Amino acid sequence: MDYLTAFLTGGAICALAQIIYDNTKLTPAHILVSFTAAGAVLGGLGVYQRFAEFAGAGAIIPVSGFGNSIVMGMLSELERLGWEGLFTGAFEITGLGVTTAIVFGSLMAVLFRPKG
């Protein structure tokens, strides 16, 4: 049942992004930033955590989950380090994911030639 819930909620987030893209003049970059910011704001308000508990990976995998992760890292480091944590917290929590994306993205760029 957890897989179905994750699939449906993650799919609903992606479907919402597609509907916005199809019915507005927003670019994919605008939608990406909007969903990241929405995840960050909802995470800061404590709403996204409850949603993630229900949806599991369906809430964590989309880019809104990345925005939430940034804010959660900042808030946890704020408690631990004080105001300096606001600047370091985002890197503590999301650093591994960003590093992995850079490494594998670079590897794919070296291994494959883009068509165009």
List keywords for this structure.
6 helices; 116 residues; globular; mainly alpha; 84% helix
Quick gist of this model?
This protein has 116 residues and is an all-alpha fold.
Characterise this structure.
- This protein is mainly α and 116 residues long.
- It has one domain (2-111).
- The chain contains six helices and no strands.
- The radius of gyration is 16 Å and the shape is globular.
- The protein starts with a helix and ends in a 5-residue tail after the last helix.
By secondary-structure content and strand pairing, the structural class works out as mainly alpha
The number of domains: 1
- Percent range for helical residues? over 70%
Distance between the termini: 43 Å
Query: Could you describe the largest sheet, including whether it forms a barrel?
Result: none
Individual helix count = 6
SSE blueprint:
Layout: H1 2-23, H2 28-44, H3 47-55, H4 57-60, H5 63-81, H6 85-111
Helix pairs in contact: 2-5, 5-6
